[in-house]
Amino acid sequence: MPSLDSFKARRTLDVDGKSYTYYSLKAAAENGLGDVSRLPASLKVLLENMLRNEDGKTVTKADIVAFKEWLDNKGSAQHEIAYRPARVLMQDFTGVPAVVDLAAMRDAAEKLGADAEAINPLVPVDLVIDHSVMVDFFANEDSFEKNVEIEYERNGERYEFLRWGSKAFRNFRVVPPGTGICHQVNLEYLGQTVWTREEDGETIAYFDTCVGTDSHTTMINGLSVLGWGVGGIEAEAAMLGQPVSMLIPEVVGFKLTGKLAEGATATDLVLTVTQMLRKHGVVGKFVEFFGPGLANLTLEDEATISNMAPEYGATCGFFPVDEETLSYLSDTGRDPERVKLVEAYAKAQGYWRPEMPDPVYTSTLELDLGSVVPSLAGPKRPQDRVLLSEADTAFRDALNEIRGGSKDPNTTPGSRGEARFVDEGATSVYTHPESYGVSMHSVEGTDYHIHDGSVVIAAITSCTNTSNPSVMLAAGLLARNALEKGLARKPWVKTSLAPGSKVVTDYLARAGLQDDLDALGFNLVGYGCTTCIGNSGPLPPAVSKAISENDLVAASVLSGNRNFEGRISQDIRANYLASPPLVVAYAIAGSLHVNLTTDPLGKDKDGNDVYLKDIWPTSHEIAEVMRKSVTPEMFTERYGDVFKGDEHWQNISVTGSKTYSWPAGSTYVQNPPYFEGMSVELDKAEDVKDARILGLFADSITTDHISPAGAIKASSPAGRYLQEHQVSPVDFNSYGSRRGNHQVMMRGTFANIRIKNQMVPGVEGGVTVHQPSGEQMAIYDAAMKYKDEGVPLVVFAGKEYGTGSSRDWAAKGTILLGVKAVVAESFERIHRSNLIGMGVLPLQFKDGQSWHSLGLDGSEQVSISGIDSISPRQDLDVIIKKKDGSTVTAKTLVRIDTENELDYFRNGGILHYVLRNLAREAAA
């Protein structure tokens, strides 16, 4: 769509003999906009987007002027904009349901009289299959091959569907399994920093931007590509030409000074940054990094920080272009012509960091990199940083809390629950177990024992750290040094190595370090997210049995970004994030009771104590190995034919039909019911009358709690459904792999084993009380009973409802269960948007109210009037009738923030909105 170009910003940029058309921020400033040179770099990206897409309707002159007003008011001016990202990134867990929805929309389009092929991505879409491989086999040289074989057996129906999609849809590419993690592939290959497209004989250059169906899409901000996670629903709309509706955000500046001290890693840095930003409060805001300390970080370090933006709560964590950006693009085999364009374009746009004046920020923080020390985060949240030197005592406190006791050491022993913790003076649980007071429990068929705090999973995994050669090579060097000292991993630790790309395998092999990692049990298990998303696979049966029978609080240590309760493994209740070398160290230690800074890890061949400091590689060693082992040729070779796939992928044969032939018996892919009975004309939004409460939830209910994830229990509603369809429990696979089947997913909504519905105090899992019968049952079963009775439903919650990964099924499952509204004290950004995108009304308590303060217990009936006439961010009363006939009023704020969101909600969801528009165009 041509720009109206109110500020005469359209210009030509000549780079090495080639001409590019672009929209110049400097020209706009000179032609009436005013000086915007001190605008944060991330907002300069959005401003260029407005200049290029100005059409007088979705983007107006006022939207452009709003950026100057933002600058003049230091971020306090709120203004809605319609932002169009250059491209969309998907992974297969969230991507499959998105492609299912597109296929369903093609069917619905035909029924409404529109052309099915009009349902087609209008911007480039890349889907990387990285969420399906599980760690079934480990610590063997053939683990990778065996895991891949099982992956294809489990996911054949899904992969066949995705191959169909790659042929049926234009602008849609699929990176096959076994290639890498989507964010690392994005960083190493897909991201370009400056994007180009051919239009009317011209080459248009503009900032590379993207949205992704995974919250860690933010990793690409390290490459100066503005990107963040959106719900699958929002991503589908972006693919179909709908802008992302958003308010110009506040931007928090994070100043970095100094240099990392010897022994501190990028992981330690990001855990420190995460804790600081969580404390500062950055939910819904951009974070932008600046200051002299950036000169002492590699781009991979910056990408590690950007990756964790969802953990510190920000929309993104952004770094502008500098020499390091150019070096990384060159070192990863990008086209030299593109690298020259990036430099020229950044300088032309006033976006080149060394030449930028310090931007104006809404607020700022500062960190001296030299103050960063080795750390972990856990046992349940990424922002709960623990110093490595205090990790053992911190675990003891956490253990007391997990077991229900107080973490106050001054309380009497009898009030500390039944925690079995270690005496302060002990030095090693393996040298002097009797000095600990730890209950040791034998593992059947072995000669070893485990206890509260035993590390039973040590996983080098996740895009966060496997994209960074410095920490991956540090892990390999630490393994080599440990072996030379005669150390080994403890036999109860399940070890795994799941790199984010094949390039990691190449440089570890070239450095000779893969052999050392193999010798400690860190054999390659697959290229994917694995343990970080709950695909850790089963523990050895004897270890699992010992944990279960003795009610042990076992632990995992992983180099990931998420450690929420119930996420990593159903056997494990304490999960810690750590750098790859610390993962290796804990595999050797085998216990969180070992203080890695003061206790020996074991003894060398001569019987001398070996400490972590004895085997920790120096920064000089790491840099030297990295210089010799990581080459641009590795990237060009690995990504030269990235969409081809292995023989498994190539052997999947599909047709190129425009609509999908839904297999009737599939338990993986089903045509969803969203568009049943839909008409072209818009129906009036119905009020909620005498709804029942499906759940009362406390603070920090994550999308992991709401959305189906992890293993499927045979006794659960989803497990019963699969067995009714002749699927045996051994073939259940995970919820994530079945996200294309709404029948499975709606049964798993609110079914997390750790979710606590306060309507049934003291009970964990997806249980509620049906009213007025008072019968306790599974949430799904109650929802279906209410549906049969014609009773609508609502959910009440506390603060930060929907925090965590951008799981679209947390919203899809909610609407399919019959929930019309969610009333919470606050919402996570993506989940709030997703609820609207599925036609669920998000309401936020006002005036300090909560369901606690209103005295709710779940027996009440709820009514909400005036829904058809609501406007963005208006006040709305929720009338609650109690069991005794009395009523209370909840004062709420409608968390539909923009007019675009209101359009989506009134249509019953964003997909319905797009479909109706297409049908109207076809009828015109």
Automatic annotation (TrEMBL):
SUPFAM superfamilies named among the record's database cross-references: Aconitase iron-sulfur domain, LeuD/IlvD-like
GO molecular function: 2-methylisocitrate dehydratase activity; 4 iron, 4 sulfur cluster binding; aconitate hydratase activity; metal ion binding; RNA binding
PANTHER family on file: ACONITASE/IRON-RESPONSIVE ELEMENT FAMILY MEMBER (PTHR11670)
Cofactor: [4Fe-4S] cluster
Matching CDD domains: AcnA_IRP, AcnA_IRP_Swivel
UniProt superkingdom: Bacteria
Enzyme class: lyase
Keyword presence, Kinase: no
Encoding gene (name): acnA
Family annotation (Pfam families): Aconitase, Aconitase_C
Similarity comment: Belongs to the aconitase/IPM isomerase family.
Function: Catalyzes the isomerization of citrate to isocitrate via cis-aconitate.
Domain Aconitase A/isopropylmalate dehydratase small subunit swivel: 720-847
Keywords from the UniProt entry: 4Fe-4S, Iron, Iron-sulfur, Lyase, Metal-binding, RNA-binding, Tricarboxylic acid cycle
Domain Aconitase/3-isopropylmalate dehydratase large subunit alpha/beta/alpha stretches: 78-590
Enzyme Commission code(s) on record: 4.2.1.3
Catalytic activity field: citrate = D-threo-isocitrate; (2S,3R)-3-hydroxybutane-1,2,3-tricarboxylate = 2-methyl-cis-aconitate + H2O
Endpoints of the signal sequence: none
GO biological process: tricarboxylic acid cycle
Region (Disordered): 401-420
Name recorded for this polypeptide: Aconitate hydratase
Pathway(s) where this gene product acts: Organic acid metabolism; propanoate degradation; Carbohydrate metabolism; tricarboxylic acid cycle; isocitrate from oxaloacetate: step 2/2
Organism this protein belongs to: Henriciella mobilis
Entries under InterPro entries matching the protein: AcnA_IRP_Swivel, Acnase/IPM_dHydase_lsu_aba_1/3, Acoase/IPM_deHydtase_lsu_aba, Aconitase/3IPM_dehydase_swvl, Aconitase/IRP2, Aconitase_4Fe-4S_BS, Aconitase_4Fe-4S_dom, AconitaseA/IPMdHydase_ssu_swvl
